[in-house]
């Protein structure tokens, strides 16, 4: 029997497992998925926990809930991939052979990479919201925050869900306004980027919104260390930003096993052909989701769109045919802006987010680069779509390739 092995049972890995279970002949193929952890997290929901919008039970479910019958599930830590021998070594000495391998080990936060970040103020006045533990601890601190310098800082790019930090400061503005203390809170958005986002047109729209909400932006700030004693961020060029309550997007890196396997870049993201989604080192290894070093967003929508391309190319590889399907880097993200409104961006490798309507030209119902209540409902609805459609590998009425229909080209 031929063996297809998936490393990682997060969003991308679980989605691909379900797609392959429907597509492959299970009398011919054995499907195995490996993951270290048994709990599945709805990571976009972490954003809402600090402000009391979601609770822990809203963002976690057992991974077994999403595995189809007839697949081999192994909960163990991955040591490394030995690509030359078509095998994966697990902790404890277990060896798994494969004919084809999908790496979907995602990305992980590494607060230890920033000096001072996890010192005496960690989870007291310094927090992250990219883990459920951090989001819950931050919720308790925000409830008791009575005013001062409220800072959100991005340490380094890339990081997963790149719109989440800007959503966070928008939600903070709404939270403190409703609490009646917004005039006592100075909100600052600190980023190593040149502006609010990486693309000019979107940056212009989001910057205007930040200005309207009286949220300060400190751009081109590369954090060298966190000074716990003086409660300030220190950049490599010795600029400082003071804080009373600091929320940080830590350095994101790929799984350590990628480094041990010799498959990745210096951030442990797997070197991947951005069009075919095949490893640049081995023809029978494919990569999906945040684990890949693709020049696009690390987001669930990217994994969904890329999954259709990966499926087509994987089946071609299994049958010895050329890989003709090409991923265009399609990404689609709702941006929660507070007070029951939201924005939406849709872009790919070559086309930046543009204004217009989505998914139907001229009809919508969602507005691209517009701040509307309908877009907020799209964000809220996505949690149901995630649990019931996306990770179950079902089809969505949105094509994998980004379409220009409904978009308007503008000067940035």
Radius of gyration: 21 Å
Q: What topology, given as strand order, has the largest sheet?
A: 5-2-1-9-20
Distance from N terminus to C terminus (CA atoms, Å) equals 55 Å
At the fourth CATH level, what is the homologous superfamily of the largest domain?
FAD/NAD(P)-binding domain
SS elements, strand count: 24
Number of domains: 2
Poorly predicted regions are none
Strand portion, in percent?
Answer: 25-35%
CATH topology of the largest domain: FAD/NAD(P)-binding domain
**Second-tier CATH architecture of the largest domain:** 3-Layer(bba) Sandwich
Main beta-sheet annotation: 5 strands, parallel
List the total number of helices: 7
Overall average residue pLDDT:
96
Q: Choose one word for the global shape.
A: globular
């Amino acid at each position: 029997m031929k063996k297809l092995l998936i490393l990682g049972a997060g969003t991308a890995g679980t989605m691909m497992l379900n797609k392959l279970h429907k597509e492959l002949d299970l009398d011919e193929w054995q499907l195995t998925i490996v993951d270290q952890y048994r709990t599945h997290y709805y990571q976009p929901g972490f954003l809402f926990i600090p402000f009391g919008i979601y609770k822990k039970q809203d963002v976690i479910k057992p991974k077994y809930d999403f595995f189809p019958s007839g697949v081999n599930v192994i909960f163990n830590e991955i040591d490394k991939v030995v690509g030359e021998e078509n095998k994966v070594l697990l902790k404890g000495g277990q060896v798994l052979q494969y004919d084809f391998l999908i790496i979907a080990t995602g990305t992980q936060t590494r607060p230890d990479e920033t000096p001072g970040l996890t010192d005496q103020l960690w989870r007291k006045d310094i927090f992250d919201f990219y883990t459920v533990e951090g989001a819950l601890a931050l919720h308790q601190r925000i409830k008791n925050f009575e005013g001062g310098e409220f800072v959100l800082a991005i340490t380094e790019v890339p990081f997963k869900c790149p719109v989440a930090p800007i959503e966070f400061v928008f939600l903070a503005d709404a939270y403190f306004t409703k609490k009646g203390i917004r005039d006592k809170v100075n909100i600052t958005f600190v980023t190593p980027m040149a502006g609010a986002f990486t693309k000019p047109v979107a940056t212009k729209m989001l910057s205007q919104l930040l200005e309207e909400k009286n949220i300060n932006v400190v751009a081109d700030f590369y954090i060298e260390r966190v000074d716990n004693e003086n409660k300030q961020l220190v950049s490599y060029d010795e600029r400082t930003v003071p804080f009373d309550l600091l929320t940080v997007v830590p350095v994101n890196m790929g799984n350590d096993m990628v480094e041990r396997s010799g498959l990745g870049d210096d951030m442990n993201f797997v070197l991947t052909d951005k069009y075919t989604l095949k490893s640049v080192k081995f023809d029978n290894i494919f990569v999906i989701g945040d684990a890949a070093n693709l020049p696009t967003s690390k987001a669930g929508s990217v994994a969904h769109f890329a999954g259709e391309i990966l499926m087509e190319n994987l089946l071609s590889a299994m049958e010895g045919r050329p890989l003709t399907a090409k991923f265009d880097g399609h990404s689609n993200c709702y941006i929660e802006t507070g007070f029951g409104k939201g924005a939406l961006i849709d872009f790919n490798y070559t086309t930046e987010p543009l204004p217009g309507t989505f998914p139907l030209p001229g009809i919508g119902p969602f507005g691209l680069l517009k701040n509307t209540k309908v877009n907020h409902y799209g964000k809220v609805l996505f949690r149901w779509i995630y649990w019931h459609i996306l990770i179950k590998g079902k089809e969505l009425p949105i094509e994998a390739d980004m379409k220009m229909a409904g978009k308007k080209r503008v000067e940035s």
